Amino acid sequence: MKDILIVGAGISGATIANKLANAGKQVLVIDEKNHIAGNCYDKREDGIMVHQYGAHIFHTSIKEVYDFLSQFTTFTDYQHQVKAVIQGKEVPVPFNFNSIDILFDKNRAHELKDKLLSHYNLDSKVPILELQNAEDKDLQFLAEFVYENLFLHYTLKQWGLRPDELDKSVSGRVPVYIGTDDRYFPWDAYQGIPSQGYTKMIENILNHENIEIQLNTKFCNLNSDDYEHIFYAGTIDGFFDYKLGELPYRSERFENQTITKNYFQSNSVINYPNEHEYTRIIEHKYFLNDKTDKTIISYEYPEAYELGKNDPYYPIIKEETTKLYQAYLEQTKYLPYITFIGRLGDYKYYDMDKAVNRALEVFNLYQSQ
Ligand code: UDP
User: Fold this and answer.
1) Measured from the CB, is residue 253 less than 6 Å from ligand 1?
2) What domains, with CATH codes, occur in the chain?
3) Distance 93 CA to ligand 1 centre (A)
4) What predicted TM-score, i.e. pTM, was given to this entire model?
5) Cα–Cα 20 to 30 A to 23, which of 34, 91, 207, 296?
6) Ligand 1 atom showing the smallest separation from residue 271 Cα
7) Percentage of residues of the chain with pLDDT beyond 70
């Protein structure tokens, strides 16, 4: 008999399992997949660490999260950069001063950068939906340019929606950056990739004498009454058998190719906002700087999530779905022995660090009760 059941062996479930195991609880972690690590799952193929569910870059400003994970891995000093192809040129994303220099002639670029600096602080970030409200003519021009060339068509492919139809936090993840730092996350104090990959890191988090893991195991095949508490990282609407309606999720399909050449592209991730059905191409060997004479790339195709057909990757955060989620959350009040965690349980667009942070908070709350 175990004290605690954790549904989902991803980064959220693993974090809380570890904390509870250290606190002396006997913990069973189940996952319906045949591997641990959820969507962080990576695996070596032809000597290259392949991120099986898309590029995962650890980045955070939360020291507690960095310190927690650092018990289980070292991090490389990888600093993520993304390029987007706009008008046939590769420009840094978040769109910044260097992007402006690549796309506009010298005088115009100078004018636009000066204008940005007269309205915003150096090294600040401005969400595109906010920049669009600028009254200055040059800033309006720039906002329209960036909206049309970087955000609109990418977002239509990624979500099937325009940026303004989604919660503003979604496009706000990739703001316009007032400066020349080409990194994707210039505002985060800690970033890197686990030196031996995410799967190994999560295996280490779960490696505890009080933790048992059962893969290929569905929650519905277990008896909830056998446990003092359940932490559930699956979809919250699925847990309630969709009784209030289905929450929408976005899914992804990856088409991988192994190519016999040293490198395929100039960067780990190149976005194609305007061309092609895929949103981006990932070249995996950049992440751990793998030295091989082959390379593996993934074309990333967003698609609608369909129950039983593919996996839910992203909650689609907008007004109606937030309301439906709140209605499900109400239902959880009648189930004090269950806590929902993770992207799917909380219906939140968590990055890895936010998922760990939430799991640490949930653990602290549980301990204090
Ligand atoms: N986005 C965009 N163009 C880009 C990059 C991002 O329009 O070149 C928008 C798009 O709506 C995307 C969101 O910003 O879904 C968040 O991007 P992020 O790179 O954070 O997405 P993730 O890596 O989590 O898929």
Assistant:
1) no
2) 4-78+191-246+315-368 (3.40.50.720), 95-177 (no CATH)
3) 10
4) 0.97
5) 34
6) 8
7) 100
